[in-house]
């Protein structure tokens, strides 16, 4: 009825305006010149008035069936504190142990990395390993043509044998000269000369023996063996190429990946806690996570930390060791590191999303025994894994609101649901019901029914 009366008033206003602009004798009026401006102003005023009225009527929630005007009034009154209950979810204040982790970005580093190079010069005749193969220390990785080195060994052995025969003959002559000198048959000078010749042959023999050992070593170096156990990379030199001991390009690179290490950095403010845990009797657990921190790639222990702080970044480097039995860690791989720094025992903790911040500090909403919200100031401590330690303001067993806090005031009635999803769904429905409807959103049938 109010909408119909407003339409009738607008029509009557237009009629009176048109009558005022046309004189009764039919002669042109001075207001005729202002007719376009007056019509525009009247239409604009009518539209503004109609829009304001529709906005006021549509901002109130529709009454439920059978409720009438009394139901609409109750819905409007229920928005204030103590009126309609606000749907929320709660969580208890828990007392227990809370592990504190430090997070960092780390780089996987091979425990040992060896660039395998030839130690003698020659032609590469054989490469028996497969690229990417796991090898053990002592396995043959490459073979250099051994024939020149075998010939050098044979020559050294021949020279040794020749000098051994000369030494044997000199020693026999020395024994004979000693007998003759005892009989005073030869001069002392002859005996001394023979003794010097024996010592000369002994020195030559030792030189020959060193040459033989060197030739054997060079011959052994023609078989290039793995110095450590690990995984070989791609072959850098093909069979048939001439290699030397001075080549800058290695034959292959071996990386030790079992075990493997991860190097990461932590701020210097956390150094004290880590150093205290590292000096204790228990190992410090470290986990390597994937890029999204959703999956644990490997678990290990902290081995050591650097002996100085980087002055440019204010951080210190740490190294952790991992068994890497399944080889999920790869050298130079970037991983997220989670280090268990300490465990807080017997502390009160709540979900982090229950904490609100205001001008007077941090606070939470408590669900009291009467089912109403109570604003409570709190003092917070360490936060970990979406939970935060509360040092003052709460007691064990109290319930704090974790979902729906943005619509709460001190004393608001609460409707507690079991899960956060239900609280969010209820908040969405209540927000849509309380939001103003756009102009013209009502159907013609609804308008006609209300006007009647």
TrEMBL record:
It is found in: Cell inner membrane; Membrane. Residues 347-413 form the YknX-like C-terminal permuted SH3-like domain. It is a lipid-anchor. Keywords: Cell inner membrane, Cell membrane, Coiled coil, Membrane. Residues 153-222 form the Multidrug resistance protein MdtA-like alpha-helical hairpin domain. Residues 259-341 form the Multidrug resistance protein MdtA-like beta-barrel domain. One of its GO terms (cellular component) is efflux pump complex. Residues 58-78, 420-452 are annotated as: Disordered. Coiled coil: none annotated. PANTHER family: MULTIDRUG RESISTANCE PROTEIN MDTA. Belongs to the membrane fusion protein (MFP) (TC 8.A.1) family. This is Membrane fusion protein, multidrug efflux system. It comes from Pseudomonas delhiensis.
